[in-house]
Design brief:
The protein starts with a helix and ends with a helix. Helix 2 (44-58) crosses helix 5 (126-139) and helix 3 (62-74) crosses helix 5 (126-139). It has a domain at 43-139: Peroxidase, domain 1 (Orthogonal Bundle). It is globular, with a radius of gyration of 15 Å. It has helices at residues 3-29, 44-58, 62-74, 106-119, 126-139. By secondary structure, it is mostly helical. The record marks 68 as: Transition state stabilizer. Belongs to the peroxidase family. Its EC number is 1.11.1.7. Ca(2+) binds at residues 73, 76, 80, 82, 94. This is peroxidase.
Length: 141
């Protein structure tokens, strides 16, 4: 197994308990839904996929930064896209915190958000963009 495939396998394996818990709780309380934007923005996932593909062609390093960002956002807190927040005078953002070494490519989320806003203004959350772009970024490898 190549080092890249081994890394991806281990990364996905590390998320499997969280995914299992998410899906099992979704069955009980109807929390998470597949194709959530099917009615409100049917082309959302395709737009994200296309943008990730374009970014990957331009900047080959994007796949692993997607994975690292989703890990820091979901494993540390709760998949709330809080790592996209900027610092204020009173608090240091997750982006600038010492524990977040290596987080990068936040501008790519902005690029994807702009493309989505042209089609479906105010519909798709940054948290969903972060998760879906991580999924599509890893598939690009």
């Amino acid at each position: 197994m190549s080092p890249n495939k081994a890394f991806i396998f281990l990364a996905l394996l590390s998320f499997s308990p969280q995914l299992f818990l998410s899906f099992s709780s979704a069955e009980q309380d109807n929390g998470l839904l597949m194709n959530y934007y099917k009615e409100s923005c049917p082309q959302a996932e395709e737009i994200i996929k296309e943008q990730v593909k374009l970014l990957y062609k331009r900047h080959k390093n994007t796949a692993f930064s997607w994975l690292r960002n989703i890990f820091h956002d979901c494993a540390v807190q709760s998949c709330d896209a809080s790592l996209l927040l900027t610092s204020t005078r009173r608090s240091l953002s997750e982006q600038e915190h010492d524990r977040s070494f290596g987080l990068r490519n936040f501008r790519y989320i902005d690029t994807i958000k702009e493309a989505l806003e042209r089609e479906c203004p105010g519909v798709v959350s940054c948290s969903d963009i972060l998760v879906l772009s991580a999924r599509d970024g890893i598939v690009s490898v």
